[in-house]
């Protein structure tokens, strides 16, 4: 027991001596100077949630705790609220130092900016309100924590970080700058953290702040650590802020898969001489809305597009049964192989580990069905009024005939019928009406003008236009039609209605180009994005008269936003998002989308009408209704003539018999 008491006393004395030794050294720490707090207040001035995270191991636990206690006594007068966290890691045997000897230089002179501009720059590189002040004994300890479990250190990639290495031994002074360069470089390369500074407040240039510039080009490589003194920083706080506005032709990994409208390599002929499309080198030759958004980003931020071969040529990603994408640009962003996926995607899966930038379009997943059959032109006469209207017109004619028979100067029924028929249908007839007959004939004449005017106008429209039967405009109509839905695209459709359930049963997975069968055989349906389907119908699936062969059902299956995406936590997300938002708000994204589709549609119309006469004479098909009327009139005349002959023979026979 005496041995244990003696050992405890010795340990207590050693702890006190170490504390006193560190206390003497801590008086030289830079947190005793006002410039220290001014710098860190400006570094964290957009932060609402401030966290002090102490990381330590067994070896230097007492020294780190002593520094933390002294630091906490002074922080209360500078930060209103903060949270303290502590992480502990046992002493590792394979402890090694990491250096970056060629990646640190003195800081360059930058133009000073005001506080408002500083806030704008910080907001462009970070969308997080959290700040983390990480305290570690030395750089190797922090490396050990990152190796063991980096998620305890880096909670948010776009948060604001400050690294404090509180050792006070001078043995590190010859190499500490290279070690800091290595840890800052690791924060960027491995964890995509750009808002981070490092400091050794108690030893080795305690008045220097280190920051990593990922896009500064030195010789043939990018990335350098720069350091600034307290005086340089307090005179210009821009020095410890990364301004992500010039990547100096940094090769940024991008995935973009060619498709018909969004990312076009072979431009339509109508756009080849357009100044906007003259030079597409920034997007590696891609036009369309996806290509031009990429080109604008590359020009704005001065980076070189390094196209990464995707795992597939498919525009849409395949998903494994557990919901993980196995192919396409989405999978490349998840791994991540790329910094930005430039293909437009539906925002349907919010549980994926990607960040979607601001949406630039809204699209719908719709059902594409055969267009309704053309209505024969000869039926135009019978379709100009409804059945009720026809019945009322016929009843009016009968009533007018009866009234005229009662007030007419003649008692012959045939004469009364012919007179009224002439007035009602515009045939010339000589009648000198009395005053009581004038109003009846005038009303019949006006009735004739209105009814025949409508009939003539409708017949003219029937001759000059093509009319179709009733199209399927609801999902219920599609369900009742019994058509099988052959498709390669069926996005997650919400709803448990019987109609949706029936449509799911009719799904048949097939190739992407099934529209030829829909237009030709007319016994199946398909699904596609509304804008893409409309483009196909207007550019390809039209007949020789330019009329559509397919129809998009008005009631669509699903509506979703469309946008690009980046790996989760990307440091470039905020600046890309801000730039794309300006393209969307200015209407450029919509214009670029319409440029390709309208040009291809126009080219197809020109090709379709190339061999057609501009002014075309009316064909027999166009005038068929006129001939039908003549034939119809002749048939009635023959019928009346035969009736008169039969009546005359019957009348003559009756006289002879009498």
What are the main properties of this structure?
658 residues, alpha/beta, eight-stranded mixed beta sheet, 20 helices, rod-shaped, disordered N terminus, Ionotropic receptor, membrane, Insect_Ionotropic_Sensory_Rcpt, cell membrane, signal
Short note summarizing the structure:
The protein is built from 20 helices and 18 strands. It has 658 residues and is of the alpha/beta class. Among the domains are: 2-240, no CATH class; 377-464; 618-658.
Provide the fold topology:
Layout: H1 2-26, H2 34-43, E1 49-57, H3 61-75, E2 83-89, E3 104-106, H4 115-125, E4 130-136, H5 139-149, E5 160-165, H6 176-189, E6 196-199, E7 208-218, E8 221-229, H7 230-235, E9 250-255, H8 288-301, E10 303-307, H9 328-334, E11 340-346, E12 354-356, E13 361-370, H10 380-383, H11 387-407, H12 413-425, H13 435-464, H14 475-481, E14 484-487, H15 498-505, E15 507-509, H16 515-521, E16 524-529, H17 530-539, E17 550-552, E18 558-567, H18 573-585, H19 588-608, H20 624-657
Parallel strand pairs: 1-2, 1-4, 3-8, 4-5, 5-6, 9-10, 9-11, 14-15, 14-16
Antiparallel strand pairs: 6-7, 7-8, 11-18, 12-18, 13-16, 13-17, 13-18
Structure write-up:
InterPro entries: Insect_Ionotropic_Sensory_Rcpt. It comes from Zophobas morio. This is Ionotropic receptor. Residues 1-19 form the signal peptide. Helices cover 43% and strands 17% of the residues. The N and C termini lie far apart (160 Å). 32% of the residues are buried. Among the domains are: 2-240, no CATH class; 377-464; 618-658. Strands 9, 10, 11, 12, 13, 14, 15, 16, 17 and 18 form a 10-stranded mixed beta sheet that branches. Strands 2-1-4-5-6-7-8-3 form an 8-stranded mixed beta sheet, sandwiched between helices. It has helices at residues 2-26, 34-43, 61-75, 115-125, 139-149, 176-189, 230-235, 288-301, 328-334, 380-383, 387-407, 413-425, 435-464, 475-481, 498-505, 515-521, 530-539, 573-585, 588-608, 624-657; strands at residues 49-57, 83-89, 104-106, 130-136, 160-165, 196-199, 208-218, 221-229, 250-255, 303-307, 340-346, 354-356, 361-370, 484-487, 507-509, 524-529, 550-552, 558-567. It is rod-shaped and about 150 Å long. It has 658 residues and is an alpha/beta fold. Mean pLDDT is 81; it is low at 1-24 and 315-328.
């Amino acid at each position: 027991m005496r041995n244990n008491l003696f050992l405890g006393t010795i340990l207590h004395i050693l702890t006190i001596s170490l504390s006193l030794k560190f206390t003497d050294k801590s008086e030289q720490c830079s947190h005793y100077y006002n410039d220290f707090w001014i710098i860190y207040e400006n570094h964290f001035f957009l932060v609402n949630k401030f966290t002090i995270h102490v990381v330590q191991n067994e070896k230097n636990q007492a020294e780190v705790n002593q520094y933390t206690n002294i630091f906490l006594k002074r922080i209360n007068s500078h930060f209103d609220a903060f949270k303290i966290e502590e992480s502990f890691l046992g002493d590792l045997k394979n402890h090694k130092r990491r250096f970056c000897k060629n990646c640190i230089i003195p800081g360059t002179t930058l133009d000073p900016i005001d506080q408002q501009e500083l806030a704008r720059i910080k907001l462009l590189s970070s969308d997080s309100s959290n700040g983390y002040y990480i305290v570690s004994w030395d750089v190797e300890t922090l490396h050990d924590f990152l190796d063991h479990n980096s998620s305890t250190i880096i909670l948010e990639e776009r948060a604001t970080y400050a690294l404090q290495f509180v050792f006070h031994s001078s043995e590190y002074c010859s190499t500490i700058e290279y070690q800091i360069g290595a840890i800052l470089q690791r924060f960027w390369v491995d964890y995509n953290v750009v808002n981070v500074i490092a400091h050794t407040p108690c030893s080795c240039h305690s008045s220097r702040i280190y920051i990593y510039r990922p896009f500064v080009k030195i010789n043939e490589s990018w990335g350098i650590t720069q350091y600034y003194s307290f005086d340089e920083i307090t005179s210009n706080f821009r020095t410890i802020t990364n301004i992500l506005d010039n990547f100096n032709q940094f090769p940024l990994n991008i995935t973009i898969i060619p498709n018909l409208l969004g990312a076009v390599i072979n431009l339509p002929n109508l756009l080849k001489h357009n100044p906007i499309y003259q030079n597409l080198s920034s997007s590696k030759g891609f036009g369309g809305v996806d290509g031009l958004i990429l080109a604008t980003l590359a020009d704005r931020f001065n980076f070189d597009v390094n196209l990464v071969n995707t795992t597939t040529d498919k525009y849409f990603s395949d998903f494994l049964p557990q919901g993980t994408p196995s192919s396409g640009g989405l999978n490349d962003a998840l791994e991540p192989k790329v910094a930005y996926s430039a293909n437009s995607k539906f925002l349907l899966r919010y549980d994926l580990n990607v960040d979607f930038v601001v949406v630039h379009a809204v699209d719908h997943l719709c059902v594409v069905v055969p267009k309704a059959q053309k209505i024969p032109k000869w039926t135009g006469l019978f379709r100009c009024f409804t059945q009720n209207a026809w019945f009322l017109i016929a009843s009016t004619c009968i009533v007018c005939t009866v009234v005229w028979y009662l007030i007419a100067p003649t008692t012959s029924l045939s004469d009364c019928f012919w007179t009224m028929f002439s007035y009602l249908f515009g045939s010339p007839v000589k009648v000198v009406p009395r005053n009581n007959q004038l109003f009846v004939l005038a009303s019949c004449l006006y009735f004739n003008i209105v009814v025949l005017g409508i009939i003539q106008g409708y017949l003219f429209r029937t001759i000059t236009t093509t009319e179709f039967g009733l199209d399927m405009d609801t999902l219920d109509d599609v369900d009742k039609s019994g058509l099988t839905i052959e498709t390669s695209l069926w996005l997650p459709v919400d709803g448990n209605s019987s109609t949706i359930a029936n449509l799911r049963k009719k799904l048949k997975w097939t190739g992407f180009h099934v529209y030829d069968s829909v237009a030709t055989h007319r016994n199946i349906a398909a699904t596609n994005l509304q804008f893409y389907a409309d483009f196909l119908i207007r550019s390809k699936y039209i007949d020789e008269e330019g009329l559509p062969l397919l129809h998009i059902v008005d009631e669509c299956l699903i509506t979703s936003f469309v946008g690009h995406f980046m790996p989760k936590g990307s440091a470039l997300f905020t600046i890309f998002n801000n730039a794309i938002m300006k393209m969307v708000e200015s209407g450029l994204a919509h214009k670029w989308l319409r440029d390709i589709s309208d040009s291809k549609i126009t080219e197809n119309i020109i090709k379709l009408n190339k061999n057609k006469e501009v002014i075309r004479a009316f064909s027999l098909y166009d005038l068929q209704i006129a001939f039908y009327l003549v034939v119809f009139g002749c048939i009635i005349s023959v019928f009346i003539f035969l009736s008169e002959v039969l009546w005359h023979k019957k009348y003559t026979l009756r006289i002879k018999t009498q």
